[in-house]
Amino acid sequence: MGQKVPPKANRLGFIESWDSRWFVDFRTTPEYVEQDHFIRTYIKTNYRQAILPKVIIERTGDQLLIDIHAVRPGIIIGRGGENISEITKEIKEYTGVEKVSIKVTEIEHSSLNAQCVADFIALAVEKNMNYKRVIKNAIARSMEAGALGIKVRISGRLAGAEIARSEWFREGRVPTNTFRCYIEYGFSEAIIKKGKIGIKVWIFLKELLTKEEQELARQGKINEILFKKPTS
Known about the structure:
This protein has 232 residues and is α/β, with parallel strands linked by helices. Helix content is 36%, strand content 28%. Strands 1-2-3-4 form a four-stranded mixed beta sheet. A four-stranded antiparallel beta sheet has the order 6-5-8-7, with helices on one face. Helix 5 runs antiparallel to helix 6. The model has no long low-confidence stretch (mean pLDDT 90).
């Protein structure tokens, strides 16, 4: 079988940045990696309906800064900020860090975020909606929003079939081997009675030809490139 590498892994340090931003000696690294995994798993498992494509974790001195990107930030915040308080308390107990700061960032263009699209498809499949219709609608919304190409792979016991299979849906082009192309990648799982359905999404947004665009993309400011206003 061919070995598949997510587009972000190949582009780290070039037009992509890390979601965990801290630097320690090699003895402390395993502990921090485990803590980061716990934080992301806890938030995404308990607040899945909020659609969370990204959780950025930064450590500066004795501070732990967490930036939660969400399509529905109200679910993360809760009434009167009760959910934020609960998340903060849980993280403090697990990590032992007293200074924990949580920021919630709303996703403006969810149709261009591959992880959001994958999560939307997974939630729809769990509601027994027709997967072909759901995927075709998601592809149409992404292309209308300005994507240059999108491909979706769905795998599992589709439509309750006895034997698992995979299906591909494509529109436009997705040049995964061209490193200057900014490609969003997302993976999600739908849990149904027959088992798990896996969804992978690739969205080609733009080919970054200048160093200025590549630097903005590395800083996570891809929307400034896609939706910048022309200068008169």
